[in-house]
Write a structure and sequence with these properties.
homodimer; alpha/beta; about 45% helix
Chain lengths: ~150, ~150
């Protein structure tokens, strides 16, 4: 089950890459169904806030707290401070991460606030990000505020 | 100077209220000039992520780290975990807050990471939020994930 959702997040990342964007994808699952999916839109929409996780949450639309509190967020890359803060805002209790070797986000903050964090170290996620960072370091730095 | 920027953030909040939305506004100032301004768009755009601060950052467009690191974010209300996380992502060094009595955001987290936080306890900001929360508690709760 978990792997199917991560596969959908990876598909989103690939779609972003094919569009000329940053290859990070995300999916929100509620009671075993995908309610939102998306990918980083910095290049495509000129967006400073649509990281993959944010795009998935935005595409899930307005939800009440009880939905978020039974949802799982899947993301191909360790969530940055913005995306982690959003997970905390909405009380999403569980986050499954493709990999955290090319970028380590705010996993410690999430864990300290009681969020369950699982890291898969998925080779495909890692390979996609490593290539991208090597090929477009300036774009990547812009995305993480460096 | 600081008050002029907060006045612009308050104007944004009023604009949001006039549109039937949640009255929270924000402005990003870089070297004394407004580079982005916005207001909460939950109602207007059906958005789960466009809090006032996020809308202002999105409207500022793609910026490099050196711009954010010399910017000040003004917001009529204490920034939630999402908006605080975004401030941390981009390394915005200073945040000026209209009030934190109707809602206390992640000010301690910001301060613990070295962000300078100033709270004005502006009566107009407080009055706008108190009225709004009393009139539309369900919408307000949705916005803060409660």
């Amino acid at each position: 089950m978990s792997n199917l959702f991560m596969q959908a997040a990876i598909e989103e990342a690939r779609r972003g890459l094919a569009e000329g964007g940053i290859p990070i994808g995300s999916v929100i699952a509620y009671r075993g169904e995908i309610i939102g999916r998306g990918h980083n839109q910095r290049v495509q929409k000129g967006s400073a806030i649509l990281h993959g996780e944010m795009d998935a949450l935005e595409n899930a639309g307005r939800q009440t707290a009880d939905v978020y509190r039974e949802s799982v967020l899947y993301t191909t890359l360790s969530p940055c401070a913005m995306c982690s803060g959003t997970i905390l805002l909405y009380g999403i209790p569980r986050v499954v991460i493709g990999e955290n070797q090319s970028f380590m986000g705010e996993e410690e903050l999430l864990i300290s606030r009681g969020v369950e964090v699982e890291v898969l170290q998925d080779p495909e996620c890692l390979d996609m990000m490593r290539r991208f960072i090597a090929e477009q370091p300036h774009l990547w730095n812009e995305d993480i505020g460096v």
